[in-house]
Amino acid sequence: MGNLDLASTVKMLEGQRAQVQKELVKLDKAIAVLRELNGTSSTPSPNGKKHTMSAAARRKIGEAQKARWAKVRQAQKAKG
Q1: How many distinct structural domains can be found in the chain?
Q2: Residues 15-24, buried b or exposed e (16+ Cβ, 10 A)?
Q3: Which pLDDT does position 49 carry in this prediction?
């Protein structure tokens, strides 16, 4: 009789653990959404370092910005 009670207790605890794990997944998703709304990363880097941008990406962004400024200057020349 003791083994039957023990088995049912273990089964009940496993069910509760599964339920808690589902709740933790929901909480993790909610936290991720709130962090995104706050403007922070949803997954902080494990070593605490900031992410760096590659040289190619910086170059591409710089060229795009130069093109935007050239467009603004050309519009100002056309007006004035």
Answers
A1: 1
A2: eeeeeeeeee
A3: 74
- Cβ neighbours of residue 31 closer than 8 Å, sequence gap 6 or more: 42
Tokens 């910005």 — which residue?
65
Quick check: is 29 in a domain? yes
Q: What is the mean pLDDT of the chain?
A: 87
* Phi, psi for residue 45 in degrees, rounded to 5: -65, 140
**11: which 2 tokens?**
């089964």
Does the residue 50 lie in any domain? no
Q: Say which residue, 70 or 51, is predicted with more confidence.
A: 70
Residue span of the structural domain in which 23 resides: 2-42+55-79
